[in-house]
Design brief:
about 375 residues, alpha/beta, Rossmann fold, Dihydrodipicolinate Reductase, domain 2, 17 strands, about 35% helix, about 25% strand, binds nicotinamide-adenine-dinucleotide
Length: about 375
């Protein structure tokens, strides 16, 4: 099949700038795709660093203002890989300029921003996707298939956690490069939008919409020095966030995210319990799916730990040979491959901005519930 060039302009060269750039380069090497991503330009405010990034990853040019980037006629797609306070402004302007959009999560700092972004891409009719990359973990794609096949029967429980420990020190400043996540004017919220958003997107995908939530948030360290002002300032993010709730399918929800769970670096876990079967997964062993089927013969019934490396597992036949694992960076490669495949067919690739907005409706409800100390309905 003849491959068409798809010219990429990326905003941001941080953590996600690297995962995305790697994915654009690797996806067409491992998947047969109708488009070939061309790394046209990287945009960041620090020109020297942008140059170094461009050389390392093979970007053809650099820009220091995203407005110039989106005006360029030789760019087809804008990839927003910069902090949360930039997402709405860049994505809305890029959609108006007719560019396709990939945007990091959370889509907006809140649902109002995400809604404006959705309206912009829908008005411009441009293909769009949010980088909720964990949907492309092969073990979780397999779990989705098993759920869709009805193997679990009626679902009773869904529980999920995201545990980290990197903000425990009182001396850690807030705000500025690398620490923008602790400044709510940039991030929108703390762990609710940063971590819990991943758990929620996964849950909505696997188990359907969440109807209502009752939440609790906590800020353990009340004041931190701000990197940009040098002054001690109140901390306005949530350090920990948890909620109970109901899914529309009648199952119950139990969610928790924190950056104060000493010893845990990025422990994303989930478990789902149905009438016939249960499954659980965790990011530290992302190539395994734990599965229990009550319909197995009684003497042999028990939890299975399925090693997701065989060619009949999602995505795996594109990789090595059975028994050999893949990892975190592959989730982004799969997402690029799925986006380009869908683009070739004129179809949408989920999660779209509409799916991103659905997550923000839940995170808004979580924050409102915690603030108001009452149950909140989630907007449909
Ligand atoms: N999908 C995931 O698992 C995942 C993981 C980490 C981060 N994220 C999301 O990705 C986004 C970026 O996070 P990160 O960890 O890569 O952050 P980072 O701090 O490592 O990098 C941010 C980059 O954006 C640049 N930047 C900031 N403001 C800019 C502007 N106005 N114009 C151009 N460039 C600008 C910075 O210079 C830096 O290169 C955030 O929205 C975050 O929530 C998603």
């Amino acid at each position: 099949m003849a491959k068409k060039d798809l010219n990429i302009g990326i905003v941001g060269y941080g953590f996600m700038g690297r995962t995305h750039s790697n994915a654009f380069l690797q996806a067409p090497r491992f998947f047969d795709l109708p488009y070939r991503p061309v790394l046209k330009a990287v945009c960041a405010r620090n020109t020297e660093r942008a140059k170094g990034f461009a050389e390392n990853w093979g970007y053809q040019s650099i820009e220091s203002d995203w407005r110039t980037l989106i005006e360029r006629k030789d760019i087809d797609l804008i990839d927003v890989a910069s902090p949360n306070d930039t997402h709405a402004e860049i994505a809305i302007a890029a959609a108006k300029a007719g560019k396709m959009l990939l945007c990091e999560k959370p889509l907006g700092r809140n649902a109002a921003e995400a809604k404006a972004m959705l309206d912009a891409v829908e008005a411009a009719k441009v293909p769009n996707m949010v980088w909720y990359n964990y949907r492309r973990v092969p073990a979780l794609a397999l779990l989705k298939n098993l759920l869709d096949e009805g193997r679990f029967g009626r679902i009773f429980h869904y529980r999920s956690q995201f545990l980290q420990d990197w903000t425990i020190s009182q001396d850690l400043p807030q705000g500025g490069e690398g620490l923008w996540r602790l400044d709510s004017s940039v991030s929108g919220s703390g762990v609710t939008g940063d971590l819990l958003a991943h758990n929620i997107d996964m849950a909505l995908w696997l188990n359907g919409p969440i109807a209502e939530v009752s939440a609790m948030i906590e800020t353990f360290i009340k004041e931190r020095k701000h990197s940009l002002t040098g002054k001690m300032e109140p901390v306005t993010i949530d350090d920990a966030s948890s909620f109970i709730g109901h899914f529309r399918n009648g199952s119950t929800a139990l969610f928790e995210a924190t950056r104060y769970a000493r010893g845990h670096k990025a422990l994303f876990t989930l478990e789902i319990n149905g009438e016939y079967a249960s499954a659980r997964w965790d990011l530290h062993d992302l190539h395994r799916l734990e599965f229990f089927d009550h319909r197995d013969e009684g003497r042999l019934r028990g939890w299975k730990s399925i090693h997701i490396t065989d060619s009949d597992h999602p995505y795996m036949k594109q990789w090595w040979v059975p028994g050999l694992q893949i990892g975190y960076e592959h989730t982004f490669i799969h997402q690029v491959a799925d986006f380009l495949t869908a683009l070739g067919k004129g179809e949408e690739a989920a999660p779209t901005f509409r799916d991103g907005l659905a997550v923000d409706y839940v995170t808004d409800a979580v924050l409102d519930s915690a603030k108001n100390r009452q149950w909140e309905d989630v907007r449909a």
